[in-house]
Amino acid sequence: MQVKVAKSAGFCFGVQRAVDTVYEQVEKGVRPIYTYGPIIHNEVVVQDMEEKGVRVLNSREELESLTEGTVIIRSHGVGRDVYEILRRKGLNCVDATCPFVKKIHRTVERESAAGKQIIIIGNDRHPEVEGIKGWCQTKAAVIESAAQAEEFELSEAVPVCIVSQTTFNYKKFKDLVEILDKKRYDRIVVNTICNATEERQTEARQIAEEADAMIVIGGSHSSNTQKLFEICRKECGNTYYIQTVHDLDLGVLRSTGLVGITAGASTPKKIIEEVQKRCQN
Predict the structure, then answer these.
(1) I need a surface site. Which of 39, 44, 70, 178 has the fewest CB within 10 A?
(2) Is the pLDDT of residue 104 over 80?
(3) Do the Cβ atoms of 227 and 168 come closer than 8 Å?
């Protein structure tokens, strides 16, 4: 069996920066430490942090209940209101928002203040999109599918600014923008899908095209890993989504010639190496 691992698999810059930020705070020994939401969408990493005393805050109510401590903003970013709560409560804020996400916050804040309707291409339930909406001066529209893009209606007199969730499928983003273009809005399109996402998706597609089986590694709530799985499955019917090496069923790979491996932006290198080793052995 031949095993091919994507060079772009694993932690991206923003995720590595966020994870390092948490462990730096742990090393400082100042307690208590919280993250607002899971720092990244990987259960193994979050569990390790919890074992080191880092607690996850899952709601604004939990944040409001704090009287002391350090709160780390996760890589996905948050809306303006969360920063206001932190200031009002006098809590120490350490901001680990991915710089590429932060750039979207500045864009939608500026363009919505200028009177533009913000359209976010992405998953409305994803924390990154929730955070982006929190920087818009007016209510933003979120579009994830072709059907939603076709149904979207707005007066042609209203100018539009289109941005994207950083981990969205690049090809799908272009397709949705094309549908919106036909509505003849006065619009600007800012491709805010990060380069690491585009590179990872392109490489995953290329490997899946030649692989007999494809393994996609990532957390169960990881949006970018789910996108990778969708891309790979289109090219390779034998595509499997796993979180760790313990989920790997070698029985389905025994008669396989080439196995491709890729992983989401929040998957640690150690997990990728364990899966690679298990396949090779």
Answers:
(1) 178
(2) yes
(3) yes
For 231-269, write each residue's pLDDT tens digit: 999 999 999 999 999 999 888 887 788 999 999 999 999
The one-letter code for the residue type at 34 is Y
- Percent of the chain exceeding pLDDT 70 equals 100
Q: Which one-letter DSSP state was computed for residue 197?
A: H
| Rounded Cα gap, residues 260 and 212, in angstroms | 8
Provide the CA 35 distance to its chain's centre, in angstroms. 16
What is the maximal distance between C-alpha atoms in the chain?
63
pTM to 2 decimals?
Answer: 0.89
Q: Which of 24, 51, 84, 128 is catalytic?
A: 128
Place of tokens 């691992």: 5
Q: Please name the amino acid found at residue 41.
A: H
Average pLDDT over residues 148-169: 94
Residue 128 designated active-site: yes
Q: Are 192 and 128 in contact (CB under 8 A)?
A: no
CB atoms near residue 197 (< 10 Å)? 24
